[in-house]
Structures are given as C-alpha cells and as structure tokens.
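seq as requested:
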Amino acid sequence: MVEETHNSMNGRAEAVVQAGRIGEVHQHLYAAAPAAQPVPFQLPPAPAHFENRHDEQDRIHRAVDGHEDRVGPLVIALTGMGGVGKTALGFHIARRLRPRFPGGALYVDLDDLRRDGAVEVADVLAELMTGLGVSPEWLRSSFAGRAQQYWTHTQDKRLLLVIDNARFGAEAVPLLPASAGSLVIVTSQGPLHDLDGVATVEVPVNALSLDDAVRLLGHIVADPRLSAEPEAVEELARSCGGLPAALLVAGRWIRKYRRRSLSRLIAELSTELHEKGIPMVEAVWDAGYHGLEPEAARLYRLMSQHPAPVITAPAAAALLGSALRPAEDALEELESAGLLEGRDEGYRMHDLLRGHAGRCARQADPDGSDRAAARRTLTRWYRRQAARADLLAAGSRMTFAAVPPPTGAVPDVVFSGKAEALRWLESQRLALYGCVRLAFESELYEDAWALCEPLWTHFLDHRHYADVIEAFSTGVAAAERVEHLPAMVRMRCQLARPLWEQERFDEAAEQLRRALSAAETLGDSVPQRKLKASAVEFRGSLQYAQEDWAGAAADFEAARAVHAAIGNAYGVLLQNYLLGRTVLRQGVPERAVALLREAHRAAQEQQRERMTARTGFALGQALRRAGRAAEAGDLVRAALVNARERKSSFDEARILTELAALEDESGQTAEAAAHRAAARLLAARSGRLPGDDQSS
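struct tokens:
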C-alpha cells in the first residue's frame, strides 16, 4: 500500500538535507547555543527633580577615572543621614556612568532584605545573580557556593552595582564583583570602617546648602510666589533642614495651596512648630499630611503597617478594606503630595516618612483598633491570594488551611494561569513573608501558619533561605499556639528541608524527630495516615541528603507501604521514584530499573507530565548503569524535550550530560562530545562552578 508521504520538522535544527532515499534515521538532540542574556539595567527612572551636587560628582568622576590600573573593583561609599539624598545621588551617578560599564547595572536595597537588623548575604547574592540571568535552579544553597558562583559570573564583566542602606562594610564586601573594572556605589548612614583591603573612596553627602535647597524647591514647584517672596522661600528651605525628602513634600504643599501667600504658609508651619514643640521638618510633613483627603490620610497612616517596602494598589485596597478605585485614588494623591514614590512595581514610602506615618497613626488611632483591623484584613487578603496562586501553580496537594472567603469589597488578583501565579508569588515575596511575621505579632496565629502553606510552592522554585527558615519557624510557633497538630507536623517537616539544604543537618533532624513524635499522636483517618507517611518521607529525604542510602531506602519503603494501604496512587508513584533513585545510589541498578519502570508507568497513567519526564530520565540512568544503554535512549531524549519545553536549562544540561554518556557507550564519540559541549555552554551561561555534577 502506498501511503501519502510528507516531511515535517519541529524542534531545533542547524541544517536540513532532503534525500530521495533514507536508510536509518538517528535523531540527535544537540542544544542550540543559548540566547545571550539581556544586559541587566535595574536603576529606576531619573526623577523629575534633582539638584546636582557638583562637588560630590566631580570627586566621584575623578576617582573612577583614576581607577584603571587597580586590582579590585572601586567602591564609592556615600555616607550621610537618612533623607539627605544619598540614594538619589547614587542613582544619578550610576545613570551617567552606565555607558562605561557594558556588563550592566544592578541594584539591591539591603534594608529590604534585613531581618532583625541582620542581612542574609547568601540571599542577596541570589538576588544579584538572578539579575545577571542565573536561573534559580542553578543557584548553590550555601553562602560559600553562591559566593564562588558570583565571582565566576562577574570575573569578566565590567559591572555597575548600587548597594543601598549598608550598615557595615562586612555586608557589602561579599557582594563586590570579581572584576577589577567594576564600580560599586554603596550608601550608608555612617562610615563603613570595615571595608578592609578594598579600593574605597568615601564621599560624605551633607544636607543641601541653602542655595541648592532653594533651587530644588524651584524645580519642584514653578510658582511666581517664589520670586515674589524670596525671604519666605529661604525660610521654608531652611526649615526643611536641607533634606530633599522634606523639600519634595514642602514643594508639593506649596503647589496645593496656590492662593495663599508663602508668608502665610510659613507662619502656619511656625505656629505648629511652637505649639507642638516638634522639629520644623516634622511640621513640613504634618502640613503635607493635613492637606490630604480623608481616605488618602487614612491610607498614609496605615502604610506604616504594611510589612514590605513597596505596596501595590490591591494591597492598599486591603489595608483600607475598600474597592480598588478608592485605593488607587488615595495612592495617586499621596504621590502628588510627595509622600509616596511611584515605581513600576508599586509605590514606595521613604523610611523617614514611614516613621512619620506611624506617629500620625498613633495620634489618630490611640487604641490601635483601626490598625489592628487593617492588619487582619491585609493578612487575610494576602493569605487568600497566595492560596489561590498556589492552587494554580501546584494544583491540589496536602494542605490544612481552607482558602479564606473574599475580603469584602477588596478585589482578588486576577491570575491568567500558572506562570502568572508563580510570578505574583515572587513579586510579592517580601510582603508575603512579612505578613507571616505581622500575623504572628498580631496574634493571628491561624493566618501565620496558613500563609506558610503557599510559600512552600514558592520556596521550591526560589531558595530564599533566610526568609523561608524564619517563616516556617514562625509557622511552627503559630501552629503550636493554636494546637493544630497536623499543621505542627507539616510545618516542622517543611522547615527541615531548607535547614538540611543549608547543611544544618542536626537542626533538620531535630525538627523531623519532633514532627514524627507529634505524628504518632494522630489518628488513623486517611488524611492523618497520609501526613504520617509524608513525615517519614521527609526523614528519608534528609538521610538521602546525608548519603545514608540504607536509612533513606527504609523510610521510602515504609512511606510507600502506607500510601499503598490507603490507596494513594500518587504517593506510591513518588516513593517508587525516590526509592529507585536511592537504590541506584546503593549500586543495585537492576532493582532501580524495576522501581523506576513502575514509577514511570504510573506517571504516564496518571497523566503527570513533569513526573513522567523525571521518572523517565531516572529510568534511563538506571538502564545505562545496568548495562542496557540501548533501552535508555528514547527515555532520556523525551526528558530532554520536556526540559526544553519547560525552559529548564539546569535539567537540559544534566540530561545532555547523560546523553553524552549513552553516546559514548554506543561508540558515537562525536555526538557525545557535542552533547557535553552543549551542556558546558549551558552551565557556563548559568554561572555553574567548574566541577559541579549535573548527573545526579
């Protein structure tokens, strides 16, 4: 029978040859050269108003020009009191010098990542490497590993890095790029005495001079009153203490009351100053605050309760307990008043103004009832959105908190699908982790531990260890306060994983010991038995991480037996996969083949695409090590296709490495070399350290 014949191609091809007669066909899945990463640019747009600090700029330019022959990167330390304009100056210099640094411009605010006064530098390195295009899956877990990755990734780049709000030189030194041609601008409120061995130029940033402050006011508000009443302008500028943050509010305040003379406005400030005995700059902020409409004034006060540096309009609606439109209007009014700074990702409040907002809140709400209600609404809203995002991203899984109902008029975030849900979890990371602390401190214990459940999904893709260890420690404490036994067990198990990934094995083992002890008091319902099996599985995974293959295998077998008894088909699938990988590590490839073949069959039957690829790849590895390489090829190639569809460069590189081993065993040395070269290229582009193993 003659069949219709047609040619079809998909995937990646370097060249296509059409032949009249084809004998054998071999499919070679080389990796195309990874696309070049875009050059990072993380500096915010230039502000509408900036008063040039010519002396400071000249000094910085001279230092940069004279640094050509140095060994390490140049550090410019901008020091001065809060609100004096260090960050604005750092950004201004960075924008002007950016063309001289083709490697890109990075920015990190250490105060955003500070917990109880300390910064987890390993997490900051992860932020910086993500900015450089390193996928989270490639990041090493330890500080030492990440530091070496960062040096590897920056050694040949001329980078410009802005580090905001350093308190100690020891926080900044590990973040310095390895390239001598890089420039680092660090802002700090005090001198950084411990920048030892680093080429540093300290540039004090003082309050603006009276003339500069008057000029900045003129930039902020173009008004004939400034020329008509120069003495009043000078008095207002002087009252702001030369702080740009105060001058911005003062300028917007002047613009709001266009029909009043400057002399009258200054007199009102002076009266408030003398009556309340407050600093004049505080009176300037009071004037800006008192000019707000009631809803904007209330949002300003409640902003002090928001646990993250940037707030979005939906989160502002949650604080207010309102619909979206009133919150948007209030945010715009606050920005117009100079009390908020609009950014692409949301609105940011200066720390000095956050302190003022908190003082206003205590005056307007002395018993704290309005603030307490706002915290309840905010944490419950974030809990609901995170749970909804988690369901989209991870599907149905073991959780113990119900999704809260809608929060009154406050709108839900609209998620178009899994990818957008995951992006939202990452974009709101600081707020979500902050809400765990906020809920616990507000004695909202159920909200505290329930918020941790969707953060587990986020953690699996983004290893922010300081955040997750603090959050799940808080979750454990919260579950204990309300005596929710299943949550206590689950929280301790989930806390154990980031601990062992940080090689804090004893702490992880203690958490699991206590989890398993608590699990013994659970009943015999199907969900409770499933939770017990999960706790045993976590202990097995800890033993796997410690290379205790026998202990891990025993725990995975025990967990599998429970899942089989309660009819949990996915649980059996997962334990067979984990057990098969462990048995392969024990050097028993034929048993591993049997286990992984069963896991792969079950994954296909359950239509679990990701697990089908994972089990297929592991089965391919086991077959090769059992001397059955001919059976492994299709499985490993299918896993490669899946990795490319998911755009997982880490999985792609390790699968290419396995394909190279398969090609070697079949005598295809050229193909093997091509696969290894492609894997090395992917790894190098992703900042992998030389010698890292991709095959496990």
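The longest strand covers residues 74-79.
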